[in-house]
């Protein structure tokens, strides 16, 4: 671990348990990067690892494939990024102990501290977006029916007032179903 990171970790231990605004800024700056969060998550289950194993794991997660399927190009891209940027930042912060010469990464007491911050946000309810396709088939059918009724009314097959009323009713029921899906 770098001497700066060790001094900060020691100072943090002796200070109050609540981090200052400046310390929180540094914590969130460390946690803002997805690869650094993946490194910390990997170290949740491993006391130490090699940079190569870590690069393979991060590449697998980022590409949504098993570690055994990671190509050398995918692994190398992550390896260089970890070596040049992310592992030194985590080491300077004291979140890991990174030995560049040996290519080893070890967890520290601050690893657990940062994981606690990640755990706080993991328990938060996730907001649902339309792109997540989590609405039920009935909702899609109701809203599709509303559109169909409007088109039928436009072609004069049904009186305009009747088609408009039916479309509004179907739309309201469909929107209610969406709200129900989001809240459950």
From TrEMBL:
Transmembrane helix as UniProt keyword: yes
Assigned keywords, A-Z: Membrane, Transmembrane, Transmembrane helix
InterPro entries: DUF7344 (IPR055768), WH-like_DNA-bd_sf (IPR036388), WH_DNA-bd_sf (IPR036390)
Pfam family, one: DUF7344
Ranges for domain DUF7344: 28-106
Listed transmembrane segments: 135-156, 162-182
Region of interest called Disordered, as start-end residue ranges on this chain: 1-21
Protein name: DUF7344 domain-containing protein
UniProt organism field: Haloplanus rubicundus
């Amino acid at each position: 671990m770098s001497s700066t990171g060790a001094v900060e970790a020691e100072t943090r231990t002796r200070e109050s348990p609540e981090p200052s605004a400046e310390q929180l800024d540094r914590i969130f700056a460390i946690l803002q990067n997805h690869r650094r969060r993946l490194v910390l998550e990997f170290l949740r289950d491993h006391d130490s690892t090699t940079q190569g194993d870590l690069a393979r794991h991060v590449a697998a997660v980022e590409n949504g494939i098993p570690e055994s399927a990671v190509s050398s190009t995918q692994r190398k891209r992550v390896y260089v990024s970890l070596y040049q940027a992310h592992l030194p930042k985590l080491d300077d912060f004291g979140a890991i102990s990174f030995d560049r010469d040996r290519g080893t990464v070890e967890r520290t007491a601050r690893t657990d501290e940062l994981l606690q911050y990640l755990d706080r946000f993991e328990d938060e309810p996730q907001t649902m977006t339309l792109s997540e396709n989590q609405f039920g088939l009935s909702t899609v059918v109701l809203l599709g029916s509303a559109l169909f009724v409007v088109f039928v009314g436009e072609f004069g097959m049904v009186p305009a007032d009747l088609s408009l009323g039916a479309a509004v009713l179907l739309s309201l029921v469909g929107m209610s179903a969406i709200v129900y899906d989001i809240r459950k």
